Amino acid sequence: MKFLTKTILSILLAASATSLSYAADGSAESATTVTDTSKPHTPMSEGEVRKINKETGRVTIKHGPLANLDMPGMTMLFRLQDPAMIDQIKEGDRIRFVANKVDGAFVVQVLEVVK
């Protein structure tokens, strides 16, 4: 029984590692997009930048539903995965973004300004 359990776990770990390597290849389409989401098929959410804190690398976003996080629309604080994202936005900008929960914090992983 232990052998069977270890074998099944090994197969699951191998399958998981393979799917993660494919996920890392995803990229967004816009020139103003900052990349690297672990879920390339995650739908983008829409929102408005309400406040920017360059010192902490965090932004307050009023957003619609975040389907991938099963969250309704609200206004909340997000950390930016890439510090360069903060220079692409200003308060009042309409944005599309992908956020995920990383180490207990909500992190914007992909971001584009709606023009």
UniProtKB/TrEMBL annotation:
Please tell me whether the keyword Transmembrane helix is annotated for this protein. no
Region spans: Disordered: 26-48
Signal sequence segment: 1-23
* This protein's record includes keyword GTP-binding: no
Q: Which UniProt keywords apply?
A: Signal
Taxonomic superkingdom: Bacteria
Record InterPro entries = CusF_Ec (IPR021647), CusF_sf (IPR042230)
One matching Pfam family:
CusF_Ec
Protein name as annotated: Cu/Ag efflux protein CusF
Question: Which species does the entry assign this protein to?
Answer: Herminiimonas fonticola
Q: What is the lineage of its organism?
A: Bacteria, Pseudomonadati, Pseudomonadota, Betaproteobacteria, Burkholderiales
